[in-house]
Automatic annotation (TrEMBL):
The chain crosses the membrane at residues 12-29, 35-52, 64-88. InterPro entries: Cation_antiport_E. Belongs to the CPA3 antiporters (TC 2.A.63) subunit E family. Keywords: Cell membrane, Membrane, Transmembrane, Transmembrane helix. This is Multisubunit sodium/proton antiporter MrpE subunit. GO terms for cellular component: plasma membrane. PANTHER family: NA(+)/H(+) ANTIPORTER SUBUNIT E1, NA(+)_H(+) ANTIPORTER SUBUNIT E1. GO terms for molecular function: monoatomic cation transmembrane transporter activity.
Amino acid sequence: MNRAARRTVSRLLMGAWLLALWLLLWGRIDALTLAGGIVVAAAAYWASRLPAVPLVRKIRPLRVVVVVAEFLWDLLWSSIVIGWHAVYRPGRVRSAIVDVEMRSRSPLILLGVTTSISLRPGTILIDLPSEREVLRIHAMPVYDQQDADAKRAGVEQTEARLMRAFVTWEDSPPEEDR
């Protein structure tokens, strides 16, 4: 599928989503409500230049399960670590700003990575340049370079897992999956 076709399909998907929301708000489906929804969705697109919905070329369900399990484990473990530091070492917890280079150019993968790290206790996204090549995160606890490298590696692993689970048009699959 070429870029123009992907863009058209993604815009049609966003238009369908807006139409579905319109119909849900009205609570009924008839010819007038449907026609009004189409007009409103087209006007919203024209007036606001809504972004295209990122398309996925291939979804690997077992890899998605791994991504979800990894996220849940990270959520549990980071909660335990941050809770322990908050109770037993509240004045001695150190943090750092860590830069993480992104391999993916897909907005979908970027959204998954930033959401995942921001939902985990102890990390939060603090800067995302418009080029989307480097994420700057605030991480804790970080006491030395080894801890900072471990935080960076954790974000890179999350990105790699997402790239294996959702093969996007912007990215090629990681080397081991070719």
